[in-house]
């Protein structure tokens, strides 16, 4: 049972083992751990042995950590677009018999805590609270009954979507891949920390006291195991690949009037047993102005 945060703390950059309010820099114990989860995912370092040596370094407060990306360069980021029935209905789609899948690029991804950027070309920046699966053991044609053996851990994801561009074409790629719109992390938990397949967990998004989405992962049409099996039919899954499990109802474009994320707000995604992913919203034009001034 382990929890991790990748990032920078008082002891420098590394992979931190987390227990309650405290964290230990595993990279400072063994440099082979590196600065993201990949060496641990690939088994380059014995994790249990490493965890037993945590007292070789000073504990530091979790609040002192600045999160980074759990996997800096994942081979694939595959997302489910329609995986909760009520979300499918609010979007005006028919319930699919095969999952709606799309991919995100690495430049769209940011760590928890980093600014989530509303692009200058559209105000329609929407939120999507999601469970994210980090693949441990790779494979092709993975059976559903064996699929959960291929999970390294679970984390949080906000599938920020620029709806105006998502609907410019039947392909969702533009609206799902604006720079700095996909927060992930900060906490990664191993599967033994959660119910099997991360089932039955409360999932929520909010801005301040305003609850935007609230549901449970048991409402997913495609479970984690079924998703891994389905994706591995057409694509070889590799260690460090990311699978985003879709969002529940309550997204901004379906509200009347639509509820877009606004600069100055902080959006939070929370999943029971994992934690909170919080990111401030900034306007692209303000960010460019600030960077130019510096």
Automatic annotation (TrEMBL):
What InterPro entries does UniProt report for this protein, alphabetically? FAH, Fumarylacetoacetase-like_C, Fumarylacetoacetase_C_sf
Q: Name one GO molecular function term.
A: hydrolase activity
User: Source organism's superkingdom?
Assistant: Bacteria
Fumarylacetoacetase-like C-terminal domain boundaries:
76-282
Q: Does the keyword Metal-binding apply?
A: yes
Keyword set, alphabetical order: Hydrolase, Metal-binding
Which Pfam family name is an example for this entry?
FAA_hydrolase
Family in the record: Belongs to the FAH family.
What protein name is recorded for this chain? Fumarylacetoacetate hydrolase family protein
Q: Which organism is it from?
A: Roseibium porphyridii
Q: What is the lineage of its organism?
A: Bacteria, Pseudomonadati, Pseudomonadota, Alphaproteobacteria, Hyphomicrobiales
